[in-house]
């Protein structure tokens, strides 16, 4: 019996310990789920149960259609109000997984006589699935190390801001369910790989199908699993378990993924999916080689096989290249190129570059989103290297790939987050394993001073030595012959080789206490950080803005909904509204009016048309507006209250996108001052001042300030006092804080005049009319 | 033939009643009609000073012209100074409607009586001109018949039209009635236009008089309040005995029926107007509603979410037996100021304690529920209302009493949270409701003890079966062949 650093009860039976552990595990998972859901409800509590941002509004609208009309109607849904006059085949251009999920939940609850509002289901879907994500991460990490690491990983993913940013209540987007599907598919894959079970492989395929139906990011799985399989093969770790797992996953998964209309034949015709196909073929060859090898033992034959293997690989790659060149296989899409070259999008596809979430990640956001996990994460990856079982390779590959992608694009931080949580949990639980273990090492007294330094530098070393053999033994703690109690046998199971003398380890309670307290402090601080970031940064619906009154109470700025609701209630139902594409989904969702362009951004020319209309002068824009039946034009203007996300700040992107299609008519340089500045004051260029966007934004703005100098609070520039005249548009509505301004497009003049002349005549007429009157009066007198 | 013979008594009856009118049981010593001109609602009070000409006169007949009847949504006859409404029956003729008022006591000869007929007219005014710019004033036009018709001889008659603001733009001069008039056909003083006095008017409820003398007079006046109309009002009242709660939810479609906005809305103009406190008269910036006392969890939202610009002052629930001494006040501000011709839909709801509106009769074992028909929006008319009353699940012996007849009443079943068989519901439809109609519907029902338990039992059963399935599922081994452990 080894000496213990602190007493552990000795009179517990192994069953008691086992039952208590599993009970605690369930309680811990339940609490983690509760914390994951609760921390995502800040948005509902601070604001209301509302759909956030832009894309979720479309998902919500589609879900309403699905809930009201059924799945087949949704499948065949052609939306004539989007991309007016083109329309959009919604059923064939969405990932329906999210809407189907809410639709199923909605119908099941209704069948159970629980008529929950569809909006509440949509709002609370993401928090609900985050609890499932925590559970899936627990399972995944348990496969990597053990259950305590699993629980830590579940707790991390439950509250880490990197994941919360995309899954707060109301953030009804594909990512809401996709991260759960991602983790669960990976778990099933690992399980299939470990057991060689076709069942788990098929379950992985089914969840892969669900993922394909839910999020475009499924391509990540499509490449991660083959990459893992490829690396395993290259490392000579080919096994029949791998063969069964991969083949069952690939065949079932690919065939089922092709059932999603939006994906269709892509899995066999685009470059992104070719890796999976190639690995599938390679696996067959390797399996065949393996079979032959087991029957023939000639070394020459083996060499021949190896050569033919390489030849086949080269042949396959060149065939792929040829097919791509010949156009049989679609080349990489632009969005994919921008993953490799961050400057690519800005040069060739401004529309992708104009989206803020496609920008490269700034380094502070890593710390903001992951806090301490970001620096524990490498330790976990190194621990995986130490042991390097098949599944550890998966974590390593995942970590490398996701780290790269997260650095390229802000939104891909989301795919990095799970692996960071897993790896950090492995590292953290290894640390705890070492320092919680009460067994004192058997070392002669004189060596004691040398070990004093352990807490400083020995962490990784000791953890790895313990972590190395522990999990194998932890699987069967009963096999360990415990001389003392059941609890100490549990620890004994975690300590390296029984019988052999422990020469390294931690001495005494104080050294343990220092490290553990530090660890607990870090964990506690992590929780505070996550809560703070979630409540401050990630829980704003962005449809509703909040500010503070002078007495500290919350003041809601609700201009967006004011304008959208005005449109919804007081304009004709078929009145086409033109706005920049950011607001397309919101207008469709909240105002229920046809829009020219929306966040779907599938037609660059159409968006460029809107950009051209916004950046041209009134006379040039008017024919464009009339040809598209535009009734109202909506602009966002933050100059009065200092809302910086307004259209004037986005204006250069409109110009750039329009320039991409009409380089002769729109030139970006015309919108800058001669000194190259982007100004809206007196010095603004003539083109800028004449542009529709400028006029609509600042129309009558200077009058608000009366005799004082008008100031644009976003750009901190004085606004010229010269009144802006609009000849082709009429101001129809402006919201309380002037954030949304809506203009009505005038109809052609009934006398066939140019509207500018008509307007000039109308204003001039008054002057003429007033002149003759005194003369007439004089005559009467 | 038999048919003809059978109809003779009816014919005699009809003839005798019309004859009784013709023979004049009464004489009107004076009729004064005064109309309070508002927006969409006009209150008309007509006072008849009646003198009986024969003994035992019990039924007095008042007359409304066809146009007025079509606009009138509320009729109430009272003896002046008394609260009790008298029973009335209506008989429609081609040009007018006869309303028989049963007097509480029969009048003997030469006895006099002051009868007050109160009517509420809805949609009787039209914006004139039909459009107004944001900076312009709001003018309305109201038209009515010059004479108050009566089957009896009238000694003197006046019609007063009074607007709220003392600014009247124009009015019609009556034609061809000099025969009845004294010094002036019409006089204007401040906010009031008086037609009359006209004296010695013969019995006028007949075709001849209507064709010869009856005419339409119109008045155009300024109104400084917006003209409001609730085009659609859906109220659902749900009673929960388990929650000791009565939930009321109103879905209201508000429409500004004043002059349509000419041109467009200018925020700058509006801000200047608010700053100088001279808001356009046809603009509705906010609304004040009186809700019941003691309410909780009030909510106000519209199709796209919560509207955060509302204030609620809850009055405490009065002691039992003295309810509604005070009312809670809800100040709600629509998302945008409501200008002429604009619409605004919103939903308003609240919870109220059960004891505030339900009482239990120990003798019969029945509950009585009082449901207010509507929460009046000040100065507005409710064009269509649908009132749904949802009783607790398993309620039996459902009966209801309405203060005035609904357009239609249907019984149905409403299924909601944790229901198994659904709850009985009553749906009543009404048209053209005003402040006067803000009364209560009384519903009586019984809830057996077993019905109270149904919810608890069904939930318990659901959980029990869930656990049972889980217990069984964990113990079923579906694997083929012996299990093999793979490392």
UniProtKB/TrEMBL annotation, chain A:
Localisation per UniProt entry: Endoplasmic reticulum membrane
Keywords tagged on the record: Endoplasmic reticulum, Glycoprotein, Glycosyltransferase, Magnesium, Manganese, Membrane, Metal-binding, Transferase, Transmembrane, Transmembrane helix
KW Cytoplasm (keyword) present: no
Catalytic activities: a di-trans,poly-cis-dolichyl diphosphooligosaccharide + L-asparaginyl-[protein] = N(4)-(oligosaccharide-(1->4)-N-acetyl-beta-D-glucosaminyl-(1->4)-N-acetyl-beta-D-glucosaminyl)-L-asparaginyl-[protein] + a di-trans,poly-cis-dolichyl diphosphate + H(+)
Cofactors required: Mg(2+); Mn(2+)
Stretches that traverse the bilayer: 26-47, 89-109, 121-141, 147-164, 176-192, 198-221, 242-262, 274-292, 304-326, 366-385, 392-410
PANTHER family cross-referenced by the UniProt entry: DOLICHYL-DIPHOSPHOOLIGOSACCHARIDE--PROTEIN GLYCOSYLTRANSFERASE SUBUNIT, DOLICHYL-DIPHOSPHOOLIGOSACCHARIDE--PROTEIN GLYCOSYLTRANSFERASE SUBUNIT STT3B
Name of the protein this chain belongs to: Dolichyl-diphosphooligosaccharide--protein glycosyltransferase subunit STT3
From TrEMBL, chain B:
Pfam family, any one: Ribophorin_I
Pathway assigned to this chain's UniProt record: Protein modification; protein glycosylation
Subcellular location per the Swiss-Prot or TrEMBL entry: Endoplasmic reticulum membrane
Predominant subcellular localization, coarse grouping: endoplasmic reticulum
Family as reported in the entry's similarity comment: Belongs to the OST1 family.
Subunit structure: Component of the oligosaccharyltransferase (OST) complex.
Protein name listed in UniProt: Dolichyl-diphosphooligosaccharide--protein glycosyltransferase subunit 1
Organism of provenance: Coprinopsis marcescibilis (Agaric fungus)
């Amino acid at each position: 019996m080894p000496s213990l650093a602190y007493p552990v009860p000795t009179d517990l039976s192994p069953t008691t310990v086992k039952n208590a552990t599993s009970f605690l595990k369930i309680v811990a998972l339940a609490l983690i789920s509760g914390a994951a859901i609760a921390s995502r409800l800040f948005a509902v509590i601070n604001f209301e149960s509302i759909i956030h941002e832009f894309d979720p509004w479309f998902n919500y609208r589609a879900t309403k259609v699905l809930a009201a009309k059924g799945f087949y109607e949704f499948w065949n849904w052609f939306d004539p109000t989007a991309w007016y006059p083109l329309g959009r085949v919604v059923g064939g251009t969405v990932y329906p997984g999210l809407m189907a999920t809410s639709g199923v939940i909605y119908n099941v609850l209704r069948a159970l006589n629980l008529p929950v509002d569809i909006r509440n289901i949509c709002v609370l879907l993401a928090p609900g699935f985050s609890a499932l994500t925590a559970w899936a991460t627990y399972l995944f990490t348990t496969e990597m190390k053990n259950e305590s690491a699993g629980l830590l990983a579940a707790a991390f993913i439950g509250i880490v801001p990197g994941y919360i940013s995309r899954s707060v209540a109301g953030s009804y987007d594909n990512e809401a369910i996709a991260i759960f599907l991602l983790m669960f598919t990976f778990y099933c894959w690992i399980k299939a790989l470990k057991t060689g079970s076709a069942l788990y492989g098929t379950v992985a395929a089914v969840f892969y199908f669900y993922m394909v139906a839910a999020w475009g990011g499924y391509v990540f799985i499509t490449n991660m699993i083959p990459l893992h399989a490829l690396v395993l093969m290259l490392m000579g770790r080919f096994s029949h378990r791998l063969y069964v797992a991969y083949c069952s996953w690939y065949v079932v998964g690919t065939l089922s993924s092709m059932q999603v209309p939006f994906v269709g034949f892509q899995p066999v015709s685009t470059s992104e999916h070719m890796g999976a196909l190639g690995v599938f073929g390679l696996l067959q060859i390797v399996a065949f080689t393996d079979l032959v090898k087991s029957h023939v033992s000639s070394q020459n034959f083996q060499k021949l096989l190896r050569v033919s293997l390489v030849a086949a690989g080269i042949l396959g790659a060149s065939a792929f290249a040829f097919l791509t060149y010949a156009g049989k296989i679609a080349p990489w899409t632009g969005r994919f190129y921008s993953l490799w070259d961050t400057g690519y999008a800005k040069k060739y596809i401004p529309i992708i570059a104009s989206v803020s979430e496609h920008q490269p990640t700034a380094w502070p956001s890593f710390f903001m989103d992951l806090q301490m996990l970001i620096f524990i994460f490498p330790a976990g990856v190194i621990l995986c290297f130490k042991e390097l079982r098949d599944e550890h390779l998966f974590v390593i590959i995942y970590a490398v790939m996701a780290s790269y992608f997260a650095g390229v694009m802000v939104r891909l931080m989301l795919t990095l987050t799970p692996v960071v949580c897993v790896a950090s949990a492995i590292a953290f639980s290894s640390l705890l394993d070492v320092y919680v273990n009460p067994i004192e090492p058997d070392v002669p007294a004189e060596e004691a001073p040398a070990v004093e330094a352990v807490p400083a530098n020995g962490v990784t070393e000791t953890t790895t030595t313990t972590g190395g053999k522990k999990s194998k033994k932890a699987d069967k703690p009963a096999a360990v012959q415990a001389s003392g109690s059941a609890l100490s046998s549990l620890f004994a199971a975690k300590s390296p080789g029984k019988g052999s003398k422990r020469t390294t380890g931690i001495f005494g309670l104080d050294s343990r206490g220092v490290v553990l307290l530090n660890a607990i402090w870090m964990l506690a601080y992590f929780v505070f950080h996550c809560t703070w970031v979630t409540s401050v940064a990630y829980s704003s619906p962005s449809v509703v803005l909040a500010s503070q009154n002078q007495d500290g109470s919350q003041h809601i700025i609700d201009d967006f909904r004011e304008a959208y609701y005005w449109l919804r209630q007081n304009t004709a139902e078929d009145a086409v509204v033109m706005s920049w594409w950011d607001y397309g989904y919101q207008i469709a969702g909240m105002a229920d009016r046809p829009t020219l362009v929306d966040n779907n951004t599938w037609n660059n020319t159409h968006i460029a048309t809107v950009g051209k209309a916004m950046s041209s002068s009134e006379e040039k824009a008017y024919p464009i507006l009339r040809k598209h039946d535009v009734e109202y034009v909506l602009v966002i203007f933050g100059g009065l209250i200092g809302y910086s996300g307004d259209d004037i700040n986005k204006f250069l992107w409109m110009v750039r996108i329009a320039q991409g299609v009409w380089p002769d008519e729109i030139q970006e340089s015309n919108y800058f001052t001669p000194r190259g500045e982007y100004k809206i004051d007196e010095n603004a260029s003539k083109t800028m001042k004449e542009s529709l966007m400028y006029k609509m934004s600042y129309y009558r703005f200077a009058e608000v300030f009366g005799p004082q100098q008008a100031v644009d609070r976003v750009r901190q520039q004085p606004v010229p006092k010269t009144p802006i005249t609009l000849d082709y548009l009429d101001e129809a509505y402006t919201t309380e804080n002037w954030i949304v301004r809506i203009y009505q497009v005038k109809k052609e003049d009934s006398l066939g005049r140019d509207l500018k002349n008509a307007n000039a005549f109308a204003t001039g007429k008054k002057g003429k009319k007033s002149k003759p009157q005194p003369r007439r009066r004089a005559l009467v007198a | 033939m038999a048919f003809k013979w059978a109809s003779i008594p009816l014919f005699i009856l009809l003839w005798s009643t019309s004859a009784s009118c013709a023979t004049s049981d009464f004489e009107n010593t004076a009729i004064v009609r005064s109309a309070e001109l508002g927006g969409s609602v006009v209150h008309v009070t007509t006072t008849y000073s009646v003198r009986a000409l024969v003994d035992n006169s019990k039924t007095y007949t008042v007359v409304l012209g066809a146009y007025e009847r079509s606009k009138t949504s509320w009729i109430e006859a009272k003896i002046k100074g008394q609260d009790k409404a008298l029973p009335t029956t209506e008989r429609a003729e081609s040009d007018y409607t006869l309303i028989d008022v049963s007097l509480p006591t029969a009048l003997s000869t030469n006895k006099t009586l002051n009868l007050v007929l109160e009517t509420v007219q809805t949609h009787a005014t039209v914006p004139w001109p039909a459009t107004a710019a944001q900076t312009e004033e709001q003018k309305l036009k109201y038209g009515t018949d010059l004479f108050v018709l009566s089957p009896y001889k009238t000694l003197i008659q006046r019609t007063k039209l009074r607007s709220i603001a003392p600014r009247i733009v124009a009015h019609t001069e009556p034609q061809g009635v000099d025969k009845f008039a004294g010094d002036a056909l019409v006089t204007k003083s401040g906010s009031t236009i008086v037609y009359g006095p006209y004296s010695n008017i013969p019995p006028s409820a007949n075709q001849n008089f209507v064709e010869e003398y009856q005419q339409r007079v119109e008045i155009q006046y300024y109104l400084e309040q917006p003209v409001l109309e609730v085009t659609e009002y859906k109220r659902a009242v749900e009673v929960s005995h388990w929650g000791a709660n009565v939930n009321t939810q109103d879905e209201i479609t508000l429409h500004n029926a004043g002059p349509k906005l000419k041109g467009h809305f200018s925020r700058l103009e509006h801000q200047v107007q608010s700053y100088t406190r001279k808001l356009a008269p046809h603009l509705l910036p906010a609304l004040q509603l009186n809700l019941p006392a003691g309410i909780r969890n009030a909510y106000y939202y519209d199709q796209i979410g919560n509207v955060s610009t509302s204030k609620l002052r809850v009055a405490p629930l009065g002691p039992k037996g003295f309810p509604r001494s005070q009312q809670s006040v809800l100040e709600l501000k629509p998302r945008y100021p409501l200008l002429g011709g604009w619409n605004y839909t919103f939903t308003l709801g609240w919870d109220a304690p059960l004891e505030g509106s339900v009482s239990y009769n120990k003798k019969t074992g029945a509950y009585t529920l009082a449901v207010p028909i509507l929460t009046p929006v000040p100065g507005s008319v409710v064009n269509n209302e649908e009132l749904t009353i949802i009783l607790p699940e398993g309620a039996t012996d459902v009966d209801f009493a309405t203060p005035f007849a609904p357009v239609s009443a249907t019984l149905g079943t409403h299924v909601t949270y944790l229901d198994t068989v659904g709850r009985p519901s009553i749906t009543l439809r009404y048209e053209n409701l005003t402040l006067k109609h803000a009364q209560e519907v009384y519903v009586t029902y019984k809830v057996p003890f077993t019905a109270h338990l149904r919810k608890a039992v069904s939930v318990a059963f659901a959980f029990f079966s869930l656990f049972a399935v889980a217990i069984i599922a964990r113990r079923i081994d579906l694997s083929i062949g012996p299990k093999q452990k793979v490392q």
